[in-house]
Amino acid sequence: MERRPWILLAPALVTIVMLVVVPMSFILVYSFYENIDLAVDRVAFQFSNWQALFLDNYYRIAIWKTLRLSVIVTVLAAVLGYIPAYFIAMTKFRQRWLLLLLLILPFWISFIIRTLSWIHILGNQGALNGLLQWLGVIDAPLQMMFTEATVIVGFLHVFLPYMILNVYVSLEGIDRNLEPAARTLGATPWQAFLEVTLPLSLPGLAAGCLLVFVLTGGSYVTPLILGGPSDYLFGNLIHDAVVSELNWPMGATLSFTLLVLLGAVVVAYSRLMGLNQLSKAFR
């Protein structure tokens, strides 16, 4: 067995072990500790944290809500993101780089600031309510904040560029002559898109879906700012356990559970599509 490949891989393997495997191992071990008081833990090997996770319906509801909301956001992002990605990839506009710059521009603004901006848009004193009242459509402000719909809007605002970039990269790699060739064989423009362009762009669409799903499932800031008391996700439970309750063993248990759930999604995607498509959007 040659040693050269392992020598070349050694820096990457050491980095992964030190920055991923070792920290996650500590989190797994810490999940078996016992919390005695606020920020006071006792070294032990007990399963009370894991029993609470599996037996308490509160945590099961949080897992279900997280998966459900992640699927909703992913589907909406796929539908809404494909259209602008197709336009950017197929446009004959010479300054296409400007369209990509406008797409990447939101990444230059803080994630929290972008989320907070929806309060000034959808709040009782926000721009949308003000416009509707000025037009005489409504007499009193509509309650649009602190709902699940607002949380979904916030997620789409933040994560939609990831979907568009991945789909764009996939569409950009398709030969422009394939659709005209399909039309010369009798296909309509819509049939050419459905039978040629769409299937060839599925790897990018799947990569975008993976990114949006994982980022949504692990997020807690957007529900914390835009959601109501019942709009918590699993990430919010981790935040509360670690920051508010100072119950770090339970926080470690929840964190490792979320890692396993989202990791299973990544593994399933890797088996079906491969992970090489993920890196293309950021080259």
Q: What is the gist of this entry?
A:
The chain is mainly α and 283 residues long. Helices cover 73% and strands 2% of the residues. Strand 1 and strand 2 (40-42) form a beta hairpin.
Tell me the total number of β-strands: 2
Q: Can you identify the CATH class? A: Mainly Alpha
Q: How much helical structure, as a percent, in the residues?
A: over 70%
| CA-based gyration radius | 23 Å
Q: What would CATH call the homologous superfamily?
A: MetI-like
Q: Going across the major beta sheet, what is the strand order? A: 1-2
The secondary structure category is mainly alpha
Mean pLDDT: 87
What global shape is seen? globular
Distance between the termini: 33 Å
Strand content: under 5%
Number of domains as seen in the coordinates: 1
- Number of alpha- plus pi-helical segments: 13
**Uncertain residue segments:** none
Comma- or semicolon-separated keywords:
single chain, 283 residues, mainly alpha, MetI-like fold, two-stranded antiparallel ribbon, 2 strands, 73% helix
Describe this structure in words.
It is a single chain. The protein has 283 residues and is mostly helical. It has one domain: Orthogonal Bundle (MetI-like fold), CATH 1.10.3720. Helix content is 73%, strand content 2%. It contains 13 helices and 2 strands. Strands 1-2 form a two-stranded antiparallel sheet. Helix 1 (4-30) runs antiparallel to helix 12, helix 3 crosses helix 7 (148-172) and helix 5 (111-122) crosses helix 7 (148-172). It is globular, with a radius of gyration of 23 Å. The model has no long low-confidence stretch (mean pLDDT 87).
